[in-house]
C-alpha cells in the first residue's frame, strides 16, 4: 500500500549545507531491523534493512509475519545519490520506479545537522547497563519541523524522531550488524530493470519518510 495524502506530506526541498566545526559522522554499512511508529502510537512498519553508506543505497522490507500489526506493507529500494527509488511488489513481480525528491532518511545524519548533546542512556555506573549516545538535531528542509537523531559513539543510529506540524514519526533501529549481509538486496530486481520512471503528480514530494505517511 502506497497511499499518500498530499496534505500530510513532509515538504522536502534540497537543504543548503554549510561548513561547520562539528561535522556529523556518517553511519557505516549496516544490516538490521527498523521499526516505524507514528507518535500517535500507530505501528507503521517493521522489517529488515540493508544500508550501503558509501553508495547511499537502502533496502527496507517490512515484515508482515511480525506480530506488530504494522499498517504499511512495503518493500523499498532507495538510491539516494541517483535520486530514484523503487516500490517493489515481489508477490506479483511488479515494481514502480519514482523520482526521489529528498535524500533525508533515519539512518544517516544530514551534513548540516547540529550537535546537541551527549546523553548516557541507562546507567553510567553499572557495567554493561548503559549506552552513551550523541544527539544531533536539525530542521526539516522546509523548516516546518525538526528532527532529532540518537547515534552511538561509533555512529550507529539507534533512534530518530521527526516532528512536523501535521505528523510525527519515531524510527527505532535495532540489531545492527556492521556489514552488508546480502548485497543482492541492493541490486535492482530483474523484473524492475528497464522500468520507466513514473510521473509524480504536481505537489507530491517523494521521500523515504513520505512512504510512511
Ligand atoms: C560497503 O558496501 C559496499 C557495497 O557492498 C562496498 O563497496 C564498500 O566497500 C563497503 N564499505 C565498507 C567500509 O566496508
Ligand atoms: C520476518 O519475520 C520472521 C519471524 O521473525 C522471520 O523468520 C523472517 O525471516 C522475516 N522475514 C524478513 C523478510 O525479514
Ligand atoms: C492487531 O489488529 C487487530 C485488528 O485491528 C486487533 O484485534 C489486534 O488486537 C491487534 N494486535 C496487536 C498486537 O496490536
Ligand atoms: C501487483 O500487486 C500490487 C499490490 O497488490 C498492485 O497494486 C499492482 O497493481 C499489481 N501489479 C500487477 C502488474 O499486477
UniProtKB/TrEMBL annotation:
<keyword id="KW-0732">Signal</keyword>
<dbReference type="GO" id="GO:0007160">
    <property type="term" value="P:cell-matrix adhesion"/>
</dbReference>
<dbReference type="GO" id="GO:0005576">
    <property type="term" value="C:extracellular region"/>
</dbReference>
<feature type="signal peptide">
    <location>
        <begin position="1"/>
        <end position="19"/>
    </location>
</feature>
<dbReference type="GO" id="GO:0005764">
    <property type="term" value="C:lysosome"/>
</dbReference>
<dbReference type="Pfam" id="PF00811">
    <property type="entry name" value="Ependymin"/>
</dbReference>
<dbReference type="InterPro" id="IPR001299">
    <property type="entry name" value="Ependymin"/>
</dbReference>
<comment type="similarity">
    <text>Belongs to the ependymin family.</text>
</comment>
<dbReference type="GO" id="GO:0005509">
    <property type="term" value="F:calcium ion binding"/>
</dbReference>
<protein>
    <submittedName>
        <fullName>Ependymin</fullName>
    </submittedName>
</protein>
